[in-house]
C-alpha cells in the first residue's frame, strides 16, 4: 500500500447508501490504497467570523487530513439536483484561506449513489465545479453514477452485489490509482 487516499462522504446518515458504495470502493482498493476518512460531521457552518478567530479544532484536523493526502475520493448523494450542504460546507472550509486551498493540486475522484435514475450526475457536476474553483485536479472518467442503488445491494450482507457496478468500481479504482501516480511523477518532474 503506497498511496494515501482520503475519503469524504457527503451523507451523514447512518444507513447511507453512499457509505455502502464507499465501502465497496475501499474493498476494491484494498491492496493499493492506505485509506483514511475525513470527518466532515463536526465542522461548524462556515462563517468568516469563526475563521477570523482561528480555525476550530475540527477544521484544523480536516485541513491537515486533506493536505497529507496523495488523492481524495468524494462519495456523495445528490440533494435537490445538487451538492449536499454538508459537503459544500466542508469544501468551503478546505478552500480557505483564499489561494491556499488544501485541495490545490490534489487529485480527486468523485462517485455517488441514489435510489433515483440519474445516479447523482448533477451533484457530481457541482462538486467538480466547486473543486475547479480551488485548482484541484479532478478525474473525469470513469464516472461512478449508481442509480437504483437499493436494487444493487444485498441487504443481508449490507454490500453492493451488482456485478456491473462492481466491475465499474474496479475500473474506477484502477484508473484513479494511475491518475494519482501519474500526477505524482509529473509534479516531481516539475520541481
Ligand atoms: C434527496 N434525494 C435525491 N436523489 C436524487 O437522485 N436527486 C435529488 O435531487 C435528490 N434530492 C434529495 C433531497 C433531499 C433533501 C434528500 C434528503 C434526498 C434522495 C437521495 O438520493 C436519497 O435520500 C439517498 O438515500 C441519500 O443518500 P444516502 O444518505 O443514502 O447516502
From TrEMBL:
Database matches in SUPFAM superfamilies: Flavoproteins (SSF52218)
InterPro entries per the UniProt record, alphabetical: Flavoprotein-like_sf (IPR029039), FMN_Rdtase-like_dom (IPR005025), NAD(P)H-dep_reductase (IPR050712)
Alphabetized Gene3D superfamilies for the sequence: 3.40.50.360
Domain NADPH-dependent FMN reductase-like intervals: 4-148
Domain of life: Bacteria
Pfam families, alphabetized: FMN_red (PF03358)
Entry GO terms, CC: cytosol
UniProt-recorded Gene Ontology molecular function terms: FMN binding; oxidoreductase activity
UniProt record similarity statement: Belongs to the azoreductase type 2 family.
Name assigned to this protein: NAD(P)H-dependent oxidoreductase
Organism: Halobacillus locisalis
Organism ancestry: Bacteria, Bacillati, Bacillota, Bacilli, Bacillales
Amino acid at each position: 500500500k503506497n498511496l494515501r487516499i482520503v475519503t469524504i462522504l457527503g451523507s451523514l446518515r447512518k444507513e447511507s447508501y453512499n457509505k455502502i458504495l464507499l465501502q465497496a470502493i475501499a474493498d476494491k482498493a484494498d491492496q493499493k490504497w492506505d485509506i483514511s476518512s475525513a470527518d466532515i460531521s463536526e465542522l461548524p457552518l462556515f462563517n468568516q467570523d469563526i475563521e477570523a478567530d482561528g480555525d476550530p479544532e475540527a477544521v484544523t484536523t480536516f485541513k491537515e487530513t486533506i493536505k497529507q493526502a496523495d488523492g481524495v475520493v468524494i462519495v456523495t448523494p445528490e440533494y435537490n439536483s445538487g451538492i449536499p450542504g454538508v459537503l459544500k460546507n466542508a469544501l468551503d472550509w478546505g478552500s480557505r484561506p483564499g489561494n491556499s486551498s488544501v485541495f490545490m493540486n490534489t487529485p480527486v475522484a468523485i462517485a455517488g449513489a441514489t435510489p433515483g435514475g440519474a445516479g447523482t450526475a448533477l451533484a457530481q457536476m457541482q462538486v467538480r465545479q466547486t473543486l475547479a474553483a480551488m485548482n484541484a485536479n479532478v478525474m473525469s472518467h470513469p464516472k461512478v453514477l449508481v442509480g437504483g442503488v437499493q436494487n444493487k445491494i444485498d441487504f443481508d450482507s449490507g454490500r453492493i452485489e451488482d456485478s456491473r457496478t462492481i466491475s465499474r468500481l474496479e475500473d474506477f479504482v484502477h484508473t484513479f490509482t494511475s491518475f494519482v501516480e501519474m500526477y505524482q511523477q509529473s509534479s516531481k518532474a516539475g520541481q
